[in-house]
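Problem: given the chain below (232 residues), write out its structure.
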Amino acid sequence: MSAINDTFIAPPCDAAITLIFEDAHLLVINKPSGLLSLSGKNPLNLDSVHHRLVARFPGCTLVHRLDFGTSGLMVVARNKAINAALCQQFSQRGVSKSYQALLCGHLADDDGVIEAAIAKDPAQFPRMVICAVAGKPARSRYRVMERGFFPGNGNGELPVTRVVLTPETGRTHQLRIHCQQLGHPILGCDLYGGRLPPGAEQAARLMLHASELTLTHPVSGERMTFSAPSPF
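Solution.
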């Protein structure tokens, strides 16, 4: 979840953050699944990416977030000026990201585009909804890597498709709700149908991983690409 309601208490996360890149200006890290990006208001939700990193890198700030269940690459600014420069890159779509995911079912097409506007759903916080009237434009691309099966609950195996997802916009829960709109929710997604197919309840986590991140270094001007292999 990118927004955590007052009743949600994150279970303890023993997995460590992996430092992929470090210099005087920014960090690139690999976030484990099951760790908040930012600490919640509830003191029981203190543990987070930011809470852990600021102890080692005072003054660091998050440029973007990953949902609680999503693992993978995040860029972290070491100071406010770098944060502003990186945020500008994100807003101008100068940062490209790709994700690996396991989707429920076998997709018919090998690639495609999902274009559907996304809005908040005040009645079902923290869910988002597809809404052509009130929603903000959102576009995602997908490409099939392989089709296979996920071990089920003893009553058979669940068909799944491994895909690369590339968001062209950055809306909250965009990939999760777009995959649901496609008719193939991300396996393990509790908000958008990824635990409903028989056997999907066996998934230990949300099967979504930020696997590649490309940005321009705000000081050197170098175009940099980072990758982290999928853990599932």
